[in-house]
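User: Hey, my collaborator sent me this sequence without any context and asked if I could get a structure. I don't really work with proteins. Can you help?
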Amino acid sequence: MSVSASSDPLAELSAAGVSVWLDDLSRELLAGGELKELIVGKHVVGVTTNPTIFASALSKGDRYNDQLARLGAQGAQVDDAVFALTTDDVREGCRAFREVYRSSGGVDGRVSIEVDPRLARDAGATATQAVKLWETVAEPNLFVKIPATSEGLAAITATIARGISVNVTLIFSLDRYRKVMDAYQTGLEQALEAGLDLSGIHSVASFFVSRVDTEVDRRLDTLNSSHAKELKGKAAVANARLAYRAYEQVVAEARWQRLAAAGANVQRPLWASTGVKNPDYPDTMYVSDLVIAGTVNTMPGTTLTAFADHGTLPAHTPAAGDYAAAEAHLALLQDAGVDFADVTEVLEREGLEKFEASWAELGASVSEEMRSGTGTATGAADGGSGSAGLLAIYLNDHHTGATGGLELFRRAAGAKKGDEQEAVLTDLARQVEEDRDALAQIMTDLDVSVDRTKAALGWVAEKAGRLKTNGHLFSRSPLSDVLEAEAMLLGVQGKAACWRTLRALADTDRRLDATNLDTLLERAEQQSTALEELRAAAATRALDPQSAPAS
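Assistant: No problem. I've predicted the 3D structure and written it out in structure-token form, which is a compact way to encode the shape of the chain:
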């Protein structure tokens, strides 16, 4: 039974105690006045951003062109340019929400910016960049977003302990959520011990919703049974409701009560990824089914518009019976053969990969715009005029290929667990990593900077290359071994050509070690021999009918 909120659904949602945030930000929204209209007319009281949002923003309109041209003319590195663009947008966003921030006592009016996703597995680097973002934006209503990886937990604690407000993102599992709440409380305890005012520290924990149904439904579809189909479309809300119950349990504990008495603010649950992916489901279900006072729902623009048009509120907020039903549903999934722990692990890994891919796309777009805006390259990593610039481009292209190639070797080795080829491929992967490091050192000796954006694109390209036309879209086929061996062989042959080029230059450039290059070239030839043997064996297994096992 639902209650209609047709007069102004978003107003009713806000009145029910849910903070309405927009999962989007761009210079078009800021400068065009649309964000201000959303604040006034659509009850929007906060904004979240991520690398995908910024990559999309750069592709819309021309409001970034002048700044990119200036940065290009100054010779800015790509990472520095990305940092400048994103922090400028978020700072303006914070200023747009100043009045909301003041009137809500600092609870809402928040704008989030995420740390570089490439740092997600490095707690120290994440905490360091969190401080840099906080100090650069320099607005009190900023949230620094930190992914809830196992390594990120320590960064969350360290950042909170410094008095910096944090939006913890990419939470999928209940176990990780409990650890996030523990990390927040530990940070508050450290801040209190350091004499900081806890009332000025805020946090939200972004629990992802729709992606859970997407992955669970995909697995249920593979079971191909009527019972499995009946279980679809319910896991995400069940998981989120159990997360809220975990939150209620934590804030009732003595540990939290002591912090609250010292002035601490609760870490509000935030429902993220609330856009509905399956067109068969109601397009507002991840809003309507999670109406709980004291929570935040950050919506993409399409979901916000849909709820404003026809959103409804439930007859009651989740209670004990709803929690029991949620537990029962997850148990049914487990009985049906869906490993929910694996679901959440896959979603965290893929979430990071998607953000890294978007970050690479953003960096590549920034690099291209800076070049096109100035008619020159943007720093040593991108090269410049003359032979030195061309050498920088040449070496960075090979370094990019080496990064993607390393991922390919690692994946091929991983696919041969327990097989006699595992040891050979694992050793080759180690050698390829050493070769990439050797190339990076050569670049340093030649005063050529490694373009991290290009390197990231090499990694992303390899990930995309997993969807090969091998006859099996999501699994390996007999052709997988053949195609991978051929790709690895071509990569090693290209690397050997690079060593030969550098060996020729070593005759006139003392910065190059001819003996080292001879060793690298010899090793590349040995790698080619080993890979040709693997390729021939794989081709025989896959394509020679005489080698097929008897049925």
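In plain terms: Residues 1-5, 375-385, 466-476 have pLDDT under 50 and may be disordered. You can pass these tokens on to your collaborator as they are.
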